[in-house]
Amino acid sequence: MNIDQADPAELAALRVAFAVDDGGESALGWDAVRAFEAEHGVVLPEPYRTFVAEVSDGSFQGPPEYGLVGLAELPSDWGDDGARRDLAEPFPLTRQWLWEEEDAPYPDQDPEAVVEQVLHHGSVVLGTDGCAMNWHLVVTGPQRGRIWLVTDVGAMPFGAESGGTTCAPGFAGWVAHWAAGKEWFDAA
Predict the structure, then answer these.
(1) Which residue numbers delimit the Knr4/Smi1-like domain (predicted)?
(2) What number is the average pLDDT over the span 86-113?
(3) Residue 65: what pLDDT?
(4) Nearest-5° angle of CA 138, CA 44, CA 99?
(5) Total H helices, total E strands in the chain
(6) Contact at 8 Å (CB) between 75 and 136?
(7) How far apart are the first and last CA of the chain?
(8) How far is the C-alpha of 62 from the C-alpha of 67, rounded, in Å?
(9) 158-163: Cβ within 8 A, 24+ apart
């Protein structure tokens, strides 16, 4: 997974996966992507960066269940206007955390504060599967370029190295997994 340089094969696969949408008409273009990055103090990880610039800024066909939201958007079930979101602050987790069952991964921090950071720091929200199950792409911190599923009870990284699934890590692996029609958690 190269998050600093777009892989032509990954971009080709992304174009195929979203070919039935609008043929790239909804892509933001490079000026808009750079403006978003400057406004938020981040550089989006590849291949997502090139995807929103050249292929599509959102998709009704998915992934996830209710479609891929645009770069500057939040899913309709988000609950607030997103004003507290700070993409430049690092995403705080490096391992799965079920806050309904486990103590905070950082004993010196208030668990509620860490949950707020998970929800609002260092990631763009890709979309929702409903019922407060949102997919995030981490844009700052040690998990940069990784996909996380954040729910009302916890957060978990997505990708074969995290267990639970057979997909490659990152945005391209997440989309390829969806495009192949696989269940999100398909590992035995």
Answers:
(1) 32-159
(2) 86
(3) 86
(4) 10
(5) 5, 4
(6) no
(7) 23
(8) 4
(9) 158/184, 160/187, 162/96, 163/187
* 161/65 Cα distance (integer angstroms): 23
Alpha helices in 27-184 (DSSP H): 30-40, 48-50, 111-120, 170-179
pLDDT in tens, 114-159: 899 999 999 999 999 988 899 999 999 999 999 999 999 999 999 8
Extract the tokens encoding 176: 């390829």
Per-residue tokens: 140: 């700052």
Backbone angles phi, psi at 91, to 5 degrees: -60, 130
Q: Give domain 8-72+79-179's CATH number out of 3.30.870, 3.40.50, 1.10.3470, 3.40.1580.
A: 3.40.1580
3-state helix, strand, coil in the chain (%, to 5): 30, 15, 60
* Residue 7 amino acid letter: D
Check whether 34 has a pLDDT greater than 90. yes
